[in-house]
């Protein structure tokens, strides 16, 4: 896989890892937190969605036993940091909007269970952290990708609430889908993520676990900022 990181900047990294299942609020909260701190937000889920789209375009099935090295090496993914997030380009095409469909999300969940897919993106994610301060959100940021992260959080929420959030997002985007379908696919995705043999979704041993079922994003961000201040400035000072 060819990765273009020319626009990512050159700073040493303070890493904040945010993990959790789909619909727990990771992306919204990570974006808000990154904006508050002036950090780059690394959306690992978007990277796996970009990889999934690339593989689907190359006629690779999410049900395949393995992905060939030749196929992976032919994929060109580029990242462009923007305010509160990032744009993703596949072979020079901006795919930031296209990868947000439920179909790509399901495919990404299946591809991400394969060791070769995770290995293909591991180097990119770690190299970003070596270059600047980041808020990294995903399924295994704290446990696997950034075990050295200075602060780690694991967000969770009731499955029904998570499905409701995801359903609302999809409807707003104009997708025709039933809530029951979203809930069913979310539970299936949770099972795949939690039971896969490679990098299963589990809280890091030193992660702060937060249930966001009844919390507004701003409440979660405020709590996180306090914990980050404690880690970054243990005696005094402010971010």
Q: TL;DR of this structure?
A:
The chain has 239 residues and is of the alpha/beta class.
Question: What labels describe this entry?
Answer:
9 helices, 18% strand, disordered N terminus, alpha/beta, 4-stranded mixed sheet, 9 strands
Task: Produce the secondary structure layout.
Blueprint: E1 2-4, E2 15-19, H1 26-37, E3 40-43, H2 44-57, H3 69-73, E4 76-82, E5 85-90, E6 93-94, H4 102-111, H5 115-129, E7 134-138, H6 141-145, E8 151-156, H7 159-172, H8 179-195, E9 208-211, H9 217-232
Parallel strand pairs: 1-4, 2-7, 2-8, 3-7, 8-9
Antiparallel strand pairs: 4-5, 5-6
Helix pairs in contact: 1-9, 2-4, 2-5, 7-8
Structure report:
- The chain has helices at residues 26-37, 44-57, 69-73, 102-111, 115-129, 141-145, 159-172, 179-195, 217-232, and strands at residues 2-4, 15-19, 40-43, 76-82, 85-90, 93-94, 134-138, 151-156, 208-211.
- Helix 1 (26-37) crosses helix 9 (217-232).
- By secondary structure, the chain is α/β, with parallel strands linked by helices.
- The chain is globular.
- The N and C termini lie far apart (37 Å).
- The strands form two sheets. Strands 3-7-2-8-9 form a five-stranded parallel sheet, sandwiched between helices. A four-stranded mixed sheet has the order 1-4-5-6, with helices on one face.
- Helix content is 45%, strand content 18%.
- The chain is built from nine helices and nine strands.
Counted beta strands: 9
Indicate the mean pLDDT: 87
- Major sheet description: 5 strands, parallel
Strand order of the largest sheet: 3-7-2-8-9
The helix-strand sequence is EEHEHHEEEHHEHEHHEH
Structural class by helix and strand composition = alpha/beta
Residues in helices, as a percent range: 40-55%
Number of helices: 9
Distance from N terminus to C terminus (CA atoms, Å) equals 37 Å
State which percent range the strand residues make up: 15-25%
- Name the shape in a single word: globular
Radius of gyration over C-alpha positions, nearest whole angstrom: 17 Å
Low-confidence stretches: 2-11
